[in-house]
Amino acid sequence: MDWDDPLRHLAPISGHPAKKSTVLSSELSAISDQELASLKVNVKLDRFGLASARHNRAACILGSFFQFLEDDGRKVLAAEILAWIDTEDNLFELANHLVAAILLPFKASGGKAPPPISRPSIFANEGDEIEQAVAFIEPSSRRDQARLKRQCLRREGYQCIYTGCFDHRSVTNEEATLPQKAKCGSTECAHIIPFALGNFNEKDSLETENKALIWWSLYRYFPGLQGKIDAASTNQLSNAVTLFSEAHKTFGGFRLTFYPQEGVPHSYETTLMVPQSYIESKSGSSIIQLEQHDASIPMPDPDYFKVHHIISQILEVSGLGCEIDELLEAAENLDPYGSSNLGLMLSQKMLIHTWV
């Protein structure tokens, strides 16, 4: 492993109650939106949450997922909640699993990937020559990152998709011409579904099992991802975009989102959840249009942006985003070298223990 995977110190991810209880989620997948609304899942969760602070916390987590998931995932969750509403341990376990298998891994790994090969270029074709020259000495993940970044830059016209900021290195190397009054700066290749979700040490059985559980849960509640992306394909072009460094940090922290506009290809409504942020959109409004400057390079998949947006909303509304940030900061302060057990800290500070 040639980089510090932010998820490699996770403790075993808490199990899902479906392993010990049959839920007829397949039957609910065929119900209509009106029927889903008539199930009154939120009403039942509200009643469940009145029992104690622990019940309220579980209800808040489950309610946040139910509020923001798309219909296909919401119907599965509805089936589970209704099947287990009178079996509180199962609901506690379900809430714990959603935090440990989805929210924590996304939040901990957002914006993190191996740094690409970075060397100054003098000649226009030097980038390709460097890529070939270092093939025998650089780890493959770093070579992949360098290649991915260069392709995204070409597709995006050497600009950040959100701010319109031009990539400084590309301007310096005369790959891009800086228009009058345009800004340039440092850009990065940003993964929409975090790179770390697909990067794992196959010799580490715990890490392998954790990543398998993460993907099982993603497919269960975001079935639109199945067949498009998996642990081996997070580094695909449809899952990567060019972002100004500060915008990448904000996006990776799930405080900048892109939600696809229905009926308008590559048009997105952006949400910036950072008070008084100086990061401004290139359009001057919340709606931006992505442009394809190289037709041979696939555009970002809107379904990936949807997943990122949904998880951002859940983190924000549930308050778990701030809690996980504090947890990650505490882990970093405790051990700046990254050996802290995030899973143990999570269970001690965040999860809903059934024995309380």
Automatic annotation (TrEMBL):
InterPro entries, sorted: HNH_nuc (IPR003615)
HNH nuclease domain ranges (all copies): 172-258
Name of one Pfam family that matches: HNH_2
The protein's name in its UniProt record: HNH nuclease domain-containing protein
Source organism per UniProt: Lasiosphaeria hispida
